[in-house]
Amino acid sequence: MIRKCSNLLIIFIASLMLTSCWDYGDIDKKSMTISIGIEQIGDKVQFSGELAKLTPSKEGTEKAQTAQIYHTVSYGKNFEDARIHNDVINPFPVFLGVTRVVVFGTNYAKKGIEPYLNRIGSIYDYRKNLLSVVSREKPKALLNIKVEKDISVGFLIENMINSLANSGKTLYPNIGELLSNIALGKVGYVIPYVGIEHDHIAYLGFAVMKDSKLVGMIDLVDTDGVLYLLAEKPRLVEAIPDPEKEENIYSFRTVIKKRKIKTNYIDKKVEINIDLDLYAALQYQYHVAPLSDKKIKKLEERISEKVKEDIGSIIKRAQKEFQCDIFQFARYFRAQHPNIYKKIKWEEAFKDAAVNVTVQTKIINKNLEDPNAKKKY
Amino acid sequence: MKRKNKLFVEKIKTFSEGKFGVSVRKLTILNEEAFILYIQELTDGKILSDSIIKPILQNGKDTMLTIDKIFSSVIYIDDISMDDDENKIEDYILKGKSIIILSNSEKYIIANTLKIEKRAVSAPQVETTLRGPRDSFTENMDTNLSLIRYRIKDPSLRMDNFVIGRRTKTNVAVVYIEDIANKKHVDEVKKRLDEIDIDGVLESGYIQKFILNNTFDLFPQAGIVEQSDTACQNILEGKLCIIVEGSNLALVVPKTFIEFLDTGDDHYENLYLAIFSKMLRFSALGIALTLSALYVAVVSFHSDILPPQYILAIATSRVTVPFNAFLEVIAMEFITEVLREASIRLPQQVGAAISIVGAIVIGQAAVAAGLISPLMVIIASLSMMCSFVAADYTIMNPIRILKFMMIFITGIFGIFGFTLGFTFIIINLCSQTSFGIPYFAPIAPFNFQDLKNYIFSDVNLERKRPKFLNTIDKTRK
Amino acid sequence: MNESLTNRQIAFIIFGVLIGYGVMELPKNVAENAGTGGWLSLLIATAITIIFAYMITYLSYVYKNKTIYEYSERLTGKFITHIFMIIYIFYYFLGFTMITRVSCETIKLTILLKTPIWVLSLLFSFVIYYAVIKRLRVIARVCEIYGIFIIIAALLIHTSLFTQGKLINLRPFFVLEDLPLYFKSTLNMIFPFLGIEILTIIPFAKKNHKKVFKYITLMIVCISFFYIMIVESCISVMGVDEIVHYNDALYATIRRVDIPAFQVIRRLDGIFLIAWIMAIFCTITIWCYGAIVLLSKLFKKIHFNLLAFIVVFMGYIVSQMPTTYDQVKKVLDYMSYYGLVVMGIIPTILFFITKVKKYDKKMQ
User: Fold this and answer.
1) pLDDT single digits (tens) B281-323
2) Residue C356 lies in a domain
3) Are B43 and B102 in the same domain?
4) Is residue B123 situated within a structural domain?
5) What is the CA C184 to chain-centroid distance, rounded?
6) Are residues B196 and B164 part of one domain?
7) How many CB pairs below 8 Å do chains B and C form together?
8) Is the distance from CB of C67 to CB of C203 less than 8 angstroms?
9) Which range marks the domain in which residue B282 is found?
10) In chain B, what residues touch C105 (CB-CB under 8 Å)?
11) Judged by CB atoms within 8 Å, which residues 175-204 of C form the interface with A?
């Protein structure tokens, strides 16, 4: 009896399940969004999207083609509204699993990007490790540029920032990191700043965000200090003039051997001690000149000074101009003085914090060159 | 005339009528008549005339012949015996013996003149290897037993005979080494063989079905073996080999899941190659079972677990395909299975043709027509190829069927269904036993030593027989 | 029926029952209750759990081939045993249903957004029923295989999470002033260890000699390290301030990282989901088996498979009763306190009766 019933039940359930594949949706029947631009236009939010256009391969060629791109723009009072307007113009449901980059327009960034970051953080569709950048131009214009270097603008920006970050020349803050900075509170952060230069999309420096609002820019030339403090493995190039002969320039590649950030709380004042140990490798000299040990010492000092100045000036700028802790020193302070951290207001304390930077440099090699070689004749 | 003789004569009369296909040869010798009863088709005519008829006639010319004298000093045949039960005559004749009856004697002689059409020992067809002897089992049982006997010259090698099948009277031998094999297994196999009651046994597959636990079990619990060296290796390990008359595939019991993926090559070749090929076979088994299902899961449910470039590549390759991924996979797997089935059934001469047709139709045309995505072709052919890696092909049959189950359940529930479907298979594997041995040993229940021996497959390192077999003699060295 | 297990299998049953739904929100709970010093609370909780585990193991060890039903009857008499049994059965049953439900809710909210809950539960129930009617040995074997798989997957995932995380997020490791807080939060940290009471229904065989204590203690320590690894790797990626907002903290962390070096599996979701579903499957199956096996001791006349069917079917119905996710969470919260009774108090009582009446000497 029970056996028969269970058989019936199995048949019933099997047929039920077969008739309804609830979440089934083929990947080629989805609108794959590669990059998203967000901008404030008047009182409306503008979504501009860059989507993959899947085209069948031409007859005769059995090779799958690389994807092509089409663009969409939609407006709305808020994200939901804009999203609906975005959905109604797309042939298939929007798929965000391939999204590479989120581009914030300057206007929107000034208003605060936190709502959109929270949206990405909580909605399942988005990957949380996508890159976000602030664009000098309107995102719509940026995304509409025709790129020849890569599949699309999204891929281009992502690959560009990624390869720069891998060689230690910029930061690659993904949405997740930004969200945990926001959750930490009391600190600011920097995100890459891009724009169109001479008809090319270019990385311009950092956008400084305080309370997730855009408060300023750090130019590409000034980013060294930030990178020495924040980048995982900065590999920067320093051009140091000869201490004796100004026209000769030594090009060094520096690598951080040790970075130590120690905080203190003395006399109700925060003290931040940054200890950097650098390794420098001489790449080449503009004009080959002999290098004595004394000179090397001097060069080492010069590099240290230069780096110290870079770091010092950018921290000063953060304290005075941006008035926020974009380097997340708060984490270190909390780790080292958790109880004091609870009591003080970090935003205020940071502004008046005393910052001591010490840099030690060691020149470890000369790129297999021997500038001291003796000449026979 | 004595009472027995009357019965004999009656028998001879009935046989002479020709209904049974029994030939009766009547010889007249000095004092009496002799009858030779045999079946022409089963009897070697040359032996019959040279070793039986000729000596009887020559001796009978001038001496008195009694049945005992014929038995002891006239006939040249080696396999010979005497009996007096008239009811057994029929049995003997059917088994291919020749019966000699003297008209005034109470006994008769049974002489073995059996002639079997047999093929010579040839290279293995099902269980092919690169390295390893080429003498595989044939349909002839004596040949098979001799192949084992000449490899294992151990006095305690046992070959227990059974006759199974009410009508076919097939000989079945259980081969094992008495002081190694677990007594429980031997008794259990013998018990199960004794219990078989069927009209006929044509292939070892029949026996396999009878001695297994449950008709509805998915995976085979007895291995098939064609190569004589593999059979001997199993016997030495403490297993039992069942050889069935008329079948060139012997059975090996008990057998666990992972042993199906073991080949003779592994034991003869280098240690690293053995490890490598074991891993290869395991991953191939996994691919055969899961690859298509994973494709469905990725394409239709959780595309974002792949990196963007891959997703774009898959999506682009699928653009022209009118079916959804689920149907595409089912269709493609179905086609490859049909191809496989066809290539087995087709005569060898056209076999090459089908592979060309298959390759062109599936590989080229379907993709060119935009019916199937190129990626799908790769997946289907890969999972097909992977299903050929096991030395004992029987393990792959359930995998091929379960593959479809996995595709279905993944098509409904995505990776959740995939995992639960996989779990279902694992539960089934874990719950099976082969003669009391957990089918998934030595992985679960885990035994490091056994697993190590299995993976290394090296005679030098293998000091002990598998623990799960619980053999009497536990050490090999 | 011979249901004896090897030591290793017993250890892996514990692994299977402990590592389950709990790991999903473990980082959140730890971060919420004890901040970055949570590892200490976890260690203290481990020590307490080992004490309980020792008592339960001791009971099973003394009463060979017996489950709690038999030795409790011997120690406390029929009436009290029946009360105990009802407590246990209700506990296992509730655990089985609620974990099924909450897992299905999580699956629905994360990967299968449109599939109805009842279908997910149904599929789960089917496979669980199939596993349960195969009895303890098979469940133990499945746990053994899956345990290894889960450990390998977890090591892969969490070591790669550590490479993505920042060490500074983990600090301060220890704040002296917070010591009372760590002890207070220990109570919360014991909940992830609920489940070792399953040892009461595993009959030990003769071959499980003294070594079984070593195995079980080692396994609990391993699980504790496993938990610490999960918590610390998640906090190192997310930061202690953010992780508290996620009920699915572990999955949220995994979705956050992307490891380019891994190429095809650079996004770790796939591996994680498979391992996690395997883990909850082990958990639910064992809880369900616990309920059924104790019921079958009470109703000896009913066939085990029929009983299993009734329990799974009833469990399926009950799991559909709560209407919202929060209700389920609430039930699970209450269940944690209930679990303390089942894991701590009852075994302790039985343990002391055994010690006082010196049954352990008599049995040997």
Assistant:
1) 999 999 999 999 999 999 988 888 888 888 888 888 888 888 8
2) no
3) yes
4) no
5) 22
6) yes
7) 91
8) yes
9) 270-438
10) none
11) 175, 177-178
> For residue A66, what pLDDT is reported?
57
Specify whether the CB–CB gap between B75 and B52 falls below 8 A: yes
| pLDDT tens readout for residues B353-383 | 777 777 777 777 888 888 888 888 889 889 9
Neighbours of chain A (3+ CB pairs under 8 A): B, C
- Indicate whether A187 pLDDT > 90: no
| pLDDT of A60 | 45
Residue bearing tokens 């855009």:
A214
A24–B303 CB contact, under 8 Å:
no
Residue B88 lies in a domain: yes
User: Which domains can be identified in chain A, with CATH numbers?
Assistant: 25-221 (no CATH), 223-377 (3.30.300.210)
Secondary structure letter of residue A373 according to DSSP: P
Number of domains composing chain C: 1
- Whether residues C274 and B423 touch (CB distance < 8 A) is answered with no
User: In this structure, are B155 and B194 located in the same domain?
Assistant: yes
DSSP codes, B58-123 = HHHTTS---HHHIIIII---SSEEEE--GGGHHHHHHTTEEEEEETT-S-EEEEE-B----PPP--
Percent of chain B with pLDDT over 90: 14
CATH code of C340's domain? 1.20.1740.10
**Cis link prior to A241 (omega < 30° from 0)?**
no
Please report residues of C whose CB lies closer than 8 A to that of A17: 119, 123
Beta strands A68-76 and A189-197, pairing class: unpaired
DSSP secondary structure letters along A100-164: -EEEEEHHHHHH-SHHHHHHHHHSTTS-TT-EEEEESS-HHHHHHS--SSSSSHHHHHHHHHHHH
Residue C55 Cα, gap to closest chain B Cα (Å):
26
When CB atoms are compared, the residue of B415, B431, B446 closest to C274 is B415
* Burial of C259: CB neighbours in 10 Å, binned 0-12, 13-18, 19+: middle
Question: Are B421 and B293 part of one and the same domain?
Answer: yes
Mutation test of the interface with chain C: which of A10, A95, A128, choosing the one with the most C Cβ atoms within 10 A?
A: A128
Do residues B280 and B418 share a domain?
A: yes
Within the 318-337 window of chain B, which residues sit less than 8 Å (CB to CB) from chain A? 318-321, 324-326
User: Are B377 and B320 part of one and the same domain?
Assistant: yes
Domain range for C41 = 7-351
User: In which residue are the tokens 């910029």 written?
Assistant: A170
Please tell me which of the candidates C138, C145, C266 has its beta carbon nearest to residue B443: C145
CB within 8 Å of C206: residues ≥ 6 apart: C64
Asked whether residue B444 is assigned to any structural domain, the reply reads: no
Residue B107 located in a structural domain: yes
Q: How far apart are CA B290 and CA B405, in angstroms?
A: 10
Which tokens hold the place of B171? Answer: 């000989």
C119 touches chain A (CB under 8 A): yes
* pLDDT of residue A64 exceeding 50: no
pLDDT at A210 over 70: yes
**In this structure, is residue C294 part of a structural domain?**
yes
Nearest CA in chain A to C256: A128
Domain identity same for B225 and B294 = no
Please give the C-alpha separations between residue B356 and each of B346, B361, B376, B384, in angstroms, as whole numbers.
14, 8, 19, 16
Give the pLDDT band (50/70/90) at residue C1: very low
Structural domain tally of chain B? 3
pLDDT at C66: 85
Do residues B434 and B313 both lie within one domain? yes
- My answer on whether omega of the bond before B442 falls inside 30° of 0, hence cis, is yes
String of DSSP letters for C90-157: HHHHHHHHHHHHHHHHHHHHHT-SSS-HHHHHHHHHHHHHHHHTTHHHHHHHHHHHHHHHHHHHHHHH
Enumerate the residues of chain A whose CB falls inside 8 A of the CB of residue C115: 22-23
Tokens of A23: 């979440």
